[in-house]
Every structure is written in C-alpha cells, then in structure tokens.
Q: What sequence folds into this?
C-alpha cells in the first residue's frame, strides 16, 4: 500500500476516491519512562523512552489507517496528515491520529 502526504502518486492516476480513513492510538506512558523523562528534563538530553513510545504509536496509527484503506479495496492513501496530543490529568498519555484519503489507482 502506498502512503503519501501528497495529493497524488507520482506516475499513477487516481481512478477513484474510496473515502477518508483514520488511524488512532492512545498510549500510556509508564512510571519508569516518566521518571526517566523527568531526569532528562532536569539534566538535559533526549528522552529515549518517550521517543520510542511516540514512534511505536505512530507506526500503529499508520498500520490501522492502512488496514482500513485495504478493507475498502484501496491501492493507496493520499494526503496523509498526522497529529499528536497529550491526554490525561498529568499528561500521562499520548494520542496519535492520522488521516488520509483512500484511493484506487490505474
């Protein structure tokens, strides 16, 4: 499945638009990752725990969107957009959403 942020696929023409597809993931950050991030915030540096969690959430959201497009019989998803939010009383959860248009290609 081709997934692109552009509105078209280079060298291919869109035969039909199948509809908008979404992928959503809400992921909790555990205590140890939160503790490690707090230490990094104090001393400086990157938080590998948070980065890994965001990477996994993004991949899962994209996989979910692609699966939904495949169920519609699509060959590609164009115009993909990603969004990230923190949720919860203590911002202990990450929400990753993606959306795009499922299309069939010639």
A:
């Amino acid at each position: 499945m081709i997934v692109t942020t552009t509105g078209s696929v280079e060298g291919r023409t869109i035969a039909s638009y199948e509809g908008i597809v979404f992928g959503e993931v809400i992921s909790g950050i555990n205590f140890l990752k939160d503790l490690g991030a707090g230490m990094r915030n104090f001393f400086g540096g990157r938080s590998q725990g948070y980065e890994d969690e965001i990477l996994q959430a993004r991949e899962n959201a994209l996989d979910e969107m692609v699966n939904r497009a495949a169920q519609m019989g699509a060959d590609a998803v164009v115009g993909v957009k990603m969004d990230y939010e923190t949720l919860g009383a203590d911002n202990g959860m990450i929400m990753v959403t993606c959306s795009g248009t499922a299309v069939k290609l010639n």
